[in-house]
Amino acid sequence: MAGPGPCLERLPEATGADEPVVTTITHDHEDRVRSYRLPAEEWQRRWAERG
Question: For the residues of the chain, what is the DSSP string, one character each?
Answer without folding.
Answer: ----TTHHHHHHHHH--SS-------S-HHHHHHHHHHHHHHHHHHHHHH-
